Amino acid sequence: MKNKIFLLLTCLFFALNASSQVIISEESSIQDALNKYVTLNKQQSTIKAWRIQVVTTNDRREMEAAIVKLGHKYPALKYHWKHASPYYQLKVGAYEEKADLQNMLITLKRDFPSAIPVMDNMEKSELVN
């Protein structure tokens, strides 16, 4: 048994200390495609990501009242509203993954029971902040 352990440790030692060099050569068409992808990605300023839709209503006054309530209860939250006829939509947050918004959604549902997660187009810079 000791001989097997010694042999295993010896092999492991030599495997870890063996110096080898891996050379990767790629075709120029692959590198060109990668460069094109990076360039196009840098040019695109918007991304699909998640927000929490706090209110959807066809009454502008109701949406404005929700903005006031949101400002009093959650002053640090940045909000966005949009009129997609006939509805006014009030949204908060910018989350790359749906799982990231769950804690805030639970908190907001106390004051806004109809709050739901929605996909939205947003500036990439919003996700960084």
> Total number of helical segments?
5
For the sheet with most strands, the description reads: 4 strands, antiparallel
Report the count of strand segments: 4
Question: What is the level-2 CATH architecture name of one domain?
Answer: 2-Layer Sandwich
CATH superfamily of one domain: Sporulation related repeat
Low-confidence stretches: none
Report the structural category: alpha+beta
| Helix content class | 40-55%
Task: Report the sheet-strand fraction.
Answer: 25-35%
Instruction: Summarize the helix and strand pattern as letters.
Output: HHEHEEHEH
The pLDDT mean sits at 86
CATH topological fold name of one domain: Alpha-Beta Plaits
Order of strands, main sheet, comes to: 2-3-1-4
CATH class of one domain: Alpha Beta
In whole angstroms, the N-to-C terminal distance is: 58 Å
What overall geometry do the principal axes of the alpha carbons give? elongated
What is the gyration radius calculated from CA atoms? Answer: 26 Å
